[in-house]
Specification:
alpha+beta; two-stranded antiparallel ribbon; 10 helices; disordered C terminus
């Protein structure tokens, strides 16, 4: 994930989590409910995840002792600074980060006068139609692909549910390639053979990500999905590059590791016939 500064929210993870939190908050969800959802969606939360969650909870006067203690432990142990060192950050940036974290902890330990007011949100529409086949360039120069499993017109957030696929070919994929492709199952890093399926918000797409994707057509999707449903385990994000990056990381991982088993896209797009239920 990208980092562009030493401030708490100066990285992709924090930007996404902060946006997700306040989208739900402005929609009327209670902070504790949002906290549980975000933790469930990010079981392997990074330091940036916990910092941003703590900040959002503090701003809504909902910071619980368990989250405060977790952040305090990260900062006091300097484990976050160790991560920065491992990523070859400069000594100057590490010193700045240390000051930022110390001030941040002091802020969290103080009492906010009143909770951040909820904003009235205008209804958003999803970027892509259900069934859209998106192509993009991978780091290896080949084309990759993602499929829009759902377009949300009900919540007002305008989510698109998108699954990353294992399409990885030199020539531009066709709709036929999408109909017979396999789902990307991630096993790199902390991923444990999980399909990469995510709900994406429309905000930031046109300004930051639209040039990365080309919609080449649509395939029929027989199944229906809802953002708050239990049909499939999926995370939420405003960072549309997360459709592409896991494919690059998985392909790199498989250069020195066993190729991860996958499954056909049909499992996510077609209803089973009655005689198939056995």
């Amino acid at each position: 994930m990208g980092t562009w500064g030493t401030a708490i929210k100066s990285n992709d993870t924090s930007a996404d989590i902060y946006a997700d939190f306040f989208d739900l908050y402005n929609d009327g969800k209670e902070p504790n409910e949002i906290k549980k959802k975000l933790i469930s969606d990010n079981p392997n939360g990074t330091n940036d995840f916990w910092f941003t969650l703590a900040l959002a909870l503090w701003e809504t006067k909902s910071l619980s002792n368990d989250i405060l203690e977790k952040v305090r432990e990260i900062i006091k142990s300097e484990s976050d600074l160790k991560v920065w060192k491992e990523l070859d950050a400069s000594e100057s940036d590490i010193k700045k980060r240390k000051i930022v974290l110390e001030k941040f902890l002091t802020k969290l330990e103080s009492e906010k006068a009143k909770p951040k007011a909820r904003k009235r949100i205008s209804k958003k529409e999803p970027i892509f139609k259900k069934g859209s086949c998106l192509i993009f360039k991978l780091d290896n120069g080949n084309y990759g692909g993602g499929i829009v499993l759902e377009s949300d017109f009900e919540t007002g957030f305008g989510y698109n549910l998108i699954v990353s696929t294992r399409i990885n070919q030199a020539s531009s994929p066709t709709v036929s390639d999408f109909k017979k492709c396999n789902v990307l199952v991630a096993s790199f890093g902390h991923w444990k053979n999980e399909p990469k399926v995510t709900w994406y918000l429309p905000k930031r797409f046109k300004k930051e990500f639209s040039e990365l994707f080309e919609n080449i057509g649509e395939i029929p999707i027989e199944l229906n999905y809802t953002p708050n449903g239990s049909e499939i385990r999926a995370s939420f994000s405003t960072g549309w590059q997360n459709i592409i990056e896991p494919i690059n990381q998985q392909l790199e991982h498989e250069k020195t590791n066993e190729i991860t088993k996958s499954f056909s896209i049909e499992k996510l797009i077609k209803r089973k016939k009655w005689w198939q239920f056995k």
